Amino acid sequence: MPSRKLLPQAAEPFAAAFRSMLPSLFATRSRVDYGDAQRLRARRSVLSQSGTFVGHRRYERGDDLRHLDWAAYARTGELFTKQLEDDDRRAITIVLDLSSSMLAGTPQRRIGALRLAAVLGGLALARLDGLTIVAPGASAPVQRFVGAAQLPVLLSYLRELPTVDAAPAESSAAVLSAGPVGRVHWISDFAPPQPFERPLQELRRRGARVTGWLPVLPEDERPPQTGYLRVVDPETGRGLSVPVDASLAEELRRQLALLARQQRQMFAEVGSSLMRWPFAVHSVDAPAMAEHLPIVAACAR
């Protein structure tokens, strides 16, 4: 394991512009196309006929009329649907890779991972789904959140997570021991992909619907063509500046393309989907709403 003193310092993940964008981003979820009426009714059917009352939302066409809150209508003159939580079917779990490899890149890939967790988690809380964060190695490796009011608590929890290396098998074991398994969002660099194969298979066998999320850096798509590449041994701190010529640039491109193919193949073989999210198209200090809309659309499927 790399010496902690030699690791790069984790950068601030939630710039002010990102925080201020979140309410508008979450508001777009109601405008996402959920497909035809049958799909809409199917989604509403996950509301159980009995369960724990967790809140209200405005009535939408296709909702079960038995869940209308007539007392709320008498007070406000507006129709509201009671939200009842069915743990088995409404559980959302986010698995976070906190390994030192996530500190690589400019900006650090870890920033993209934590922002993905914030958006995915915030969307779950806005829908009043139960949210569980699994972060092996953290002081609180399994943390639960419920309700939109807990978004600031979620952001604070994510911001304080440490850098710690844990095997993918530890993450899947923590997910399975945390309770009912529903939809799982696993955020990592998935490099190398082989150690993730069996944990993903185990989650699939236990009924989890897993989506892998890979925050993509600019250099993942366009490795440097000129200049110098700084290589540092994390154990000793000794570094070497390697000049980038045409042959090295081509080899970097080839290796990155090979890794991407291996990742796609591994996810296909385990029957899960892999989403590659380019999070640093614009400045991380001035994130664009358009960059984050694909996350909202993916969660609607």
Q: Which H/E pattern describes the elements?
A: HHEHEHEHEEHHEHEHEEHEH
Q: How many distinct domains?
A: 2
So, CATH architecture of the largest domain?
Answer: 3-Layer(aba) Sandwich
Which fold name fills CATH's third level, the topology of the largest domain? Answer: Rossmann fold
Strand content: 15-25%
End-to-end span in angstroms? 38 Å
Tally the helices.
Answer: 11
Poorly predicted residue ranges: 32-50
Give the CATH class of the largest domain: Alpha Beta
Keywords:
301 residues; alpha/beta; Rossmann fold; 6-stranded mixed β-sheet; two-stranded antiparallel sheet; 40% helix; 19% strand; globular
Q: Summarize this, please?
A:
40% of the residues lie in helices and 19% in strands.
Could you explain how this protein is built, in words?
The protein is built from eleven helices and ten strands. The chain has 301 residues and is an alpha/beta fold. The protein folds into two domains: 22-29 and 87-218 and 264-300, Rossmann fold; 47-85, no CATH class. A six-stranded mixed β-sheet has the order 5-4-3-6-7-10, sandwiched between helices. α1 packs across α11 (289-300) and α5 packs antiparallel against α6 (151-159). Mean pLDDT is 84; it is low at 32-50.
What is the topological layout?
Blueprint: H1 16-27, H2 37-44, E1 52-58, H3 70-76, E2 80-85, H4 87-90, E3 91-96, H5 109-126, E4 130-134, E5 142-145, H6 151-159, H7 168-177, E6 183-187, H8 194-205, E7 209-216, H9 218-221, E8 228-232, E9 239-243, H10 246-270, E10 273-278, H11 289-300
Parallel strand pairs: 3-4, 3-6, 6-7, 7-10
Antiparallel strand pairs: 1-2, 4-5, 8-9
Helix pairs in contact: 1-11, 5-6, 5-11, 7-8, 8-10
